[in-house]
Amino acid sequence: MLKRDALSNPTSCVSLDMSCLTNNKAFPRLPLDIERLILECSAYHDRLMALKLVGLSRRVQTCRNVRPGLARIDPILYRHVTLEYPAQAEAFVRTLENSRKNPNFFATQVKILCFAYGIDLRDAVKILRACRSVTSLASWLELSQLAPDSPHADLESFAQLLTSGTLQLHRLSMILHDFLCVPDPDFTIPVLQNVTHLDIYQGSDHFGGWSWAGFGQLCHLTHLSFDLSLSAPLETVNEILPHAPPSLRMCIVLLSTRNSMLSIKQFCSDNMALENMAAGKVDPRLVIGTNEPLEEESRCGGLMIVHLYDDVLKDWSFVPDGGDDVWEKAERIIDNRKKRYLIEDRGAVK
Questions:
Q1: What is the maximum alpha-carbon separation in the chain?
Q2: H-type helices in the chain, by residue range?
Q3: Labelling 120: which of 56, 229, 337, 350 has CA 20 to 30 A away?
Q4: Could you tell me the mean pLDDT of each successive run of 10 residues in the chain, 350 residues long?
């Protein structure tokens, strides 16, 4: 998340030479490439640190009289942009319009972009147009939450950006029904053809009416996830999987209490169909989870994952190398099931 006040408060918390800043000659001067690596690695693995290091790296460059760009903190900072609130989106649009950076900076450096709820559609269009090299996009904008006076042209522009070949996405999380349905999603559109990880956000209420045209031809799709409202029949899952492409390796179904009077615990209690799905008996690619808290005893013998909203936001905002995202959690479930069945098979042979 971009916070302008943090940029104006640089810190000298990194143990570099900095003798020119501190007048302390007790520390030997490090080679410039070592300083650069320390700054960049610190920024890459800690976003709050990156915000502080932007100012610090500029001070080092000024003091050392080195060429700009030696410590490349700005590209790391802007590589992933998460906008949770309208004010953040408005501030980022102002940055795009008033920045002194190279005109192509945002077009080439922003790779991961996340729009949470309540972002103005016009701001979203401006940002997507400016950040043309985005490869991971999460857009949780809902038509019902847009301002009543939002021009229809903004809606058309947003849909056009997503249906054209402008964006080359590898990961997409989106409410497809609101923006890509006429009357159901056309999975042959260019923006989906290179997607490997697809999260269909809040779409289960509409799945029954979709034809899933072109879904089976998404030859790069390996990971699929969607949230399933408890008000929707569990059999919906069985209706989707036959449409999936042969490349699909994993399908995560996150149970949600949205539009339901049942709790997750009540839904899971003595639900044999759900237990069979969680155990991989219906389809070995299936992993069941929930985006709400769930007691350990209700997780189908440890075969369900719990992935809360903050986890989802982190997944689609930024996960450093080795981060434990929902796909890693699901992979562990699949591996544990295989090990369990292997042990059971060996026991049966004996």
A1: 75
A2: 4-7, 19-22, 32-45, 47-64, 73-79, 86-98, 105-109, 121-130, 152-163, 176-179, 236-240, 264-268, 272-278, 309-317, 326-349
A3: 229
A4: 41 42 57 69 65 58 46 74 91 91 89 86 91 93 66 79 85 80 79 93 79 92 92 86 95 86 83 91 93 73 84 81 81 90 70
